[in-house]
Amino acid sequence: MHRAPDLFSYRKHWAKRFGVAKQQPTSRVEMEALGWDSCDIIIVTGDAYVDHPSFGMAIIGRLLEAQGFRVGIMAQPDWTSAEDFKALGKPNLFFGVTGGNMDSMVNRYTSDRRIRSNDAYTPDGEAHRRPDRCVTVYAQRCREAYRDAPIVLGGIEASLRRIAHYDYWSDKVRRSVLMDAKADLLVYGNGERQVVEIAHRLAAGETIRSLDNIRGTALLGKNLPEDFSLIDSTEVDTPGPLAPPVDPYQMETPGCSTEKAGDQTALRFERRRLDPFKTVIRLPSYDQVKEDPVLYAHASRVLHQETNPGNARALVQRHGERDVWINPPPIPLTTREMDAVYDLPYSRQPHQTYGQKKIPAFEMIQHSVTIMRGCFGGCSFCSITEHEGRIIQNRSEDSIIRELESIRDHSPSFTGHITDLGGPTANMYRLACNDPEIESSCRRLSCVYPSICKNLNTDHAPLIKLYRRARELKGIKKITIGSGLRYDLAVKSPEYVKELVTHHVGGYLKIAPEHTESGPLSKMMKPGIGTYDAFKAMFDRYSKEAGKEQYLIPYFIAAHPGTTDQDMLNLAIWLKRHGFRADQVQAFLPSPMANATTMYHTGKDPLHRISRSSEKVFVPKGIKQRRLHKAFLRYHDAENWPLLREALKKMGRADLIGNGKHHLIPSWQPAGTGITPEGRRNHRPSRPALTQHTGLPPRGSMSPRPKVKR
């Protein structure tokens, strides 16, 4: 894999003389108190400003400060005019614009396209403090405020919209966000390497237009360098019966010549060796993918094949008269660099101007610690891989311990409970390919699906050692593991499962099998339910040995591409048999760039070779069917019984309607309850819907009923 300059090897900018700010300024008054007359970089974000390493603006701000730059934070500005965007003055180098820790559309709307009533990243959870398509609106206001100031987009919202993409909320294919935002540069991924290089090169006098060769960035209108080769995406992966199949895993591309043999014309495919790091793949244009679902699925498949920093090639896509050029992904951070990033002097508190207001997201994560980044699971509905990559980036034990000690010694609300030691996945710490050469050339979308790769190191010993060392710290009373556990990896290490269950489960452990049926699981790239059963057996065994009454709480997705009504019925029967009552259900939400979103939009499966005759994926799209799939997950809710009765009769399963333990739903209906098949509610509920999985078995079930504190 290519090497990259160490993040902290750059010569510091002259403004380092101003030192470290207790919290980076959000107003002119705060700037003047620091002795600043201007900011070098201004970060505009859709989240409240929290100086904590779980918030992107804090990491980037502190990192740039460590490089010697003066950084101002503009958090949740009033976007209805450009006035708020002038509050800190014109930045000397650039505006950095981000929607925040969440995509603004996911943040504001449910999977049913209803506006959410709160925003966890806003003081007191207040809703409506950010606009739709936050990045685009903020960038346009920055341009209005200072027309010639460079604008750099970043964060997950920009990252997942770097090419033409299907937008669920408008139900159409939209252009790259670079076009709509009229920005100069887009940073995708976590962004530390890119932002540091951008800042130093601009400070050295380069123009924003000259920064066209930085990995992990996208830009408009780059010309093809003379020593580069341009190939069409159909040479990498054929979207139809256009040519003999080409192996997308080889670093060769086919050319063809014709020669006559009698009355026949034969095609001879020649192979030419190309340097992958000087090769650009031209994707179908925005106009093509907008009109042709097959070409959209093809472009999505090619993009996902080019996500490994070790072998990814640049991509280019035409948008009208201009090209969007996407450079290969950034080189992952080393452990030394990760440690340095997380050792920066965060105050770990919301900005002082919020006073006593509570920021729900901060309240949840303030005593959690990130130990790694990335995920090689490749779940098709998840965008982590597209954003953070599938190569795990780890912190050292010492760095993690230092952060735990800092929380213990400095957090005013710390009571001794660390709420999480994890990352995108709880148990991928220090897991990687056994062979760096194989890792740098691999194009698999997942290291664990359809089975765990034989080259993957699944040794959990470093994580067990970390848990034990963390527990020994004076003042640390309890550490629970709250982030997603990959149980198909966990079962490979019974010692890890025992350690987790004995010491780090607070009564309930939430995991995500997502479904029980092979059809939807194959489209999700998730293991079969048998793996869940194996993990549950371990969990129950070690809980019993520890003398603890503990419960697994499984999460499931409704209406995922590839899911039929029968699949959801089978899942409901499984839930009833195992005594689970889901109070919060998750319906599939097509986020930009995810493989499952491609399935939703096109009806094609980009996990396999795309052709015009390839498998058609069934997609539950209509509101009535999506409501039905959610109703199956909440089979125990009387509101859903009329809808389920109608569906069961149509499916020929009226035998599941009755008043016995073996029936799914009863034949009677409580007075004043129920949602009709047409979606009309028979009454207005007197209380809001519950918001947590309780895992409580239904009354009369043979399963034990866990004790729940009220």
Characterize the structure shown.
Residues 241-272 and 684-710 have low confidence and may be disordered. 46% of the residues are buried. By secondary structure, the protein is of the alpha/beta class. It is built from 23 helices and 23 strands. The strands form seven sheets. A ten-stranded mixed beta sheet has the order 2-1-3-4-7-8-14-13-12-9, with helices on both faces. The protein is 29% helix and 14% strand. The chain is globular. A hairpin with a 4-residue loop joins strand 5 (165-167) and strand 6 (172-174). Helix 2 (56-66) crosses helix 7 (192-203), helix 15 (461-471) packs parallel to helix 17 (494-503) and helix 20 packs parallel to helix 22 (623-633). Among the domains are: 14-216, Cobalamin-binding domain (Rossmann fold); 225-309, no CATH class; 552-710, no CATH class.
Q: What is the structure about, briefly put?
A:
With 710 residues, this protein is of the alpha/beta class. 29% of the residues lie in helices and 14% in strands. It contains 23 helices and 23 strands.
What attributes characterize this protein structure?
710 residues; alpha/beta; Rossmann fold; ten-stranded mixed beta sheet; three-stranded parallel beta sheet; 23 helices; globular; disordered C terminus
Distance from first to last alpha carbon: 53 Å
CATH architecture of the domain at 14-216: 3-Layer(aba) Sandwich
Oligomer: single chain
CATH superfamily of the domain at 14-216: Cobalamin-binding domain
Stated plainly, the CATH topology of the domain at 14-216 is called Rossmann fold
